Amino acid sequence: MDTERRTPGQQVEQVRRFNRTVAEHVGVLHDQYLGGARPYGQARLLWEIGDTETHDVRSVRARHSGYISRLLRALEADGLVAVEPHPRDRRVRTVRLTDAGRTERAQLDARSQDLAGSLLHPLDPAQRTRLTAAMAEVERLLTASVVSVETLDPDHPDAVHCLRSYTAELGQLFDSGFDPDRTLLPDPGELRAPRGLFLLARLHGEPVGCGGLKLPADAPAEIKRLWISPQARGLGLARRLLSQLESRANDLGRKVVRLDTNRALEAATRLYRTSGYTEVPAFNDEPYAHHWFEKHLA
Amino acid sequence: MDTERRTPGQQVEQVRRFNRTVAEHVGVLHDQYLGGARPYGQARLLWEIGDTETHDVRSVRARHSGYISRLLRALEADGLVAVEPHPRDRRVRTVRLTDAGRTERAQLDARSQDLAGSLLHPLDPAQRTRLTAAMAEVERLLTASVVSVETLDPDHPDAVHCLRSYTAELGQLFDSGFDPDRTLLPDPGELRAPRGLFLLARLHGEPVGCGGLKLPADAPAEIKRLWISPQARGLGLARRLLSQLESRANDLGRKVVRLDTNRALEAATRLYRTSGYTEVPAFNDEPYAHHWFEKHLA
DNA sequence: TCCATTCTCTGACTCTAGTCAGGCAATAAG
DNA sequence: CTTATTGCCTGACTAGAGTCAGAGAATGGA
């Protein structure tokens, strides 16, 4: 694996070179596997409808514009999909694959698999391992790079979703369970300006993580509710939220941030230690905390 | 970096997942950077013509079919390219960018660069380094996987090209220079059936490496002229050619292959040692050899 | 009940990216 | 000098992938 130092300019060049090479290879792959007898648009739609699920045409339209009506007619004429009114709202229509549709989709699938195999085939086992590992890495980091972070009201449905997931997960992880009524910070107002703030991370629009910052007038800033959705772990998101919370605190004139955590949250504890936090004596009565940390901001 | 063992099926799945993710990201990149006011085909052509060179329309046509005439007219009408007859053969026409064309191409370039930057921007420095390193790895291995190897007559122009490059390179590398007349194997017939064989590696149709196998009736098989073009090094090609030569020898009933090499060729010597070759006493009078190796085939 | 909105479809149109056959001019081969 | 070939262009045609405006049916709200 290449570990040379690169300047930012060289890194941008590497990304562009990668885009060119990969667009060529993957593009060819993609086109060929979708490019049977069926035109691209139809094949893509067939693929998206998927094997088992039934989709509202409404939601498919959001990705394909009005043109899907025609695509659907074409697939319907060939007996690949069945379009039926939604049982509840008969304006909405639903699509699902017929048996013939599933057969044809399976062919696309086999084709895609063959072509993926054809990339691996000329390589020796060691190279295959390296290639797939590097692909996983690229995928992970590209995914990480499209995650956006925004400030959000802690009562927003997406924020509530994250906070609920957070407490649900703690309930499973802590030996003692987790009773939201016993913990400190019962009040979402503490994570809303001017008493604090709340950050939410999104991936393709879906909420995948959050972190809150309490800004009491008479005490150091305090980080609360730092949580990353299980599907979004391994992307370095927690570190990113943490550092954004710190820099927001710094911008607001705070010199110190602190936080508490439970011993069951090992990854979090490691994160704090490797992010410059040092363990300090308990600064609150949080019943679920085992470790208390603080960090002096630069 | 992920170094878990994967089964072949999991590897194929990883490649397909990669294709999906990357097609999405890179596709968006690609489309957006080419998708200014100008339609895709025109932008692509503008890009391919390049900043400085003058191209024969003939050679561009090979990639774009007859349709380029129209694309060229469109670009010409906008004053982006100049089309002129070739000074030598006035049937052939040449294209080059005008100043306006160079300006517009620079905008495409800037756009592409911005978008590559936007992938890196959300990442922290350690992640950027990891991403670009993984991208380089993927690029390298994907390139390796599209290299094809074929049996070719050693008098074929592409074979001759490789063999010339090989001797030219030895001339530079050896302290003593390299005089093709003094070395053994003056006869290309020795690398042609039934007395031997010759393998050529191609990348996108271009010859990028070769290797010969001598099959004397009264002696072990012997590997000769193993060479990889400088632009194609680091792809594991030499090892691939070597192992193909071995398996060809094996298929022809040979139990032992041997070869000689010069001490200046350190990478080659390392390759032989790590491929199961053991050093043996000189088995010929090759004046340019310092090491003699042999391997018993399984 | 009536009216506005939502969801979907269709006809008419457009643009891009081709293919194909034919034609013209320059050059190469005999 | 004639003929064949090469390279390029153009007109006529096509397919795919859309856009846009309008219409019709179902639903929700006042």
Characterization of the model:
Chains A, B: One of its GO terms (molecular function) is DNA-binding transcription factor activity. The structure is a homodimer of 298-residue chains. Chain A is built from nine helices and ten strands. The first copy, chain A, has helices spanning 8-34, 40-49, 57-64, 68-77, 99-120, 125-145, 157-173, 237-251, 266-274, and strands spanning 55-56, 81-85, 93-97, 148-151, 196-203, 206-214, 221-228, 256-261, 278-280, 291-296. Chain A has a seven-stranded mixed beta sheet, with helices on both faces. The first copy, chain A, has a three-stranded antiparallel beta sheet with strand order 1-3-2. The first copy, chain A, is globular, with a radius of gyration of 25 Å. At the A-B interface, helix 1, helix 5, helix 6 and helix 8 of A face helix 1, helix 5, helix 6 and helix 8 of B. The structure holds a DNA duplex (30 and 30 nucleotides).
Provide the fold topology:
Two copies of one chain form a homodimer.
Chain A: H1 8-34, H2 40-49, E1 55-56, H3 57-64, H4 68-77, E2 81-85, E3 93-97, H5 99-120, H6 125-145, E4 148-151, H7 157-173, E5 196-203, E6 206-214, E7 221-228, H8 237-251, E8 256-261, H9 266-274, E9 278-280, E10 291-296
Parallel strand pairs in A: 7-8
Antiparallel strand pairs in A: 1-3, 2-3, 4-5, 5-6, 6-7, 8-10, 9-10
Helix pairs in contact in A: 1-5, 2-4
Chain A binds a DNA duplex (30 and 30 nucleotides) through residues 39-41, 56-58, 61, 65-67, 69-71, 73, 85, 89-93.
InterPro entries (chains A, B): Acyl_CoA_acyltransferase, Bact_Acetyltransf, GNAT_dom, HTH_MarR-typ, WH-like_DNA-bd_sf, WH_DNA-bd_sf
GO molecular function, one term (chains A, B): acyltransferase activity, transferring groups other than amino-acyl groups
Protein name (chains A, B): Bifunctional helix-turn-helix transcriptional regulator/GNAT family N-acetyltransferase
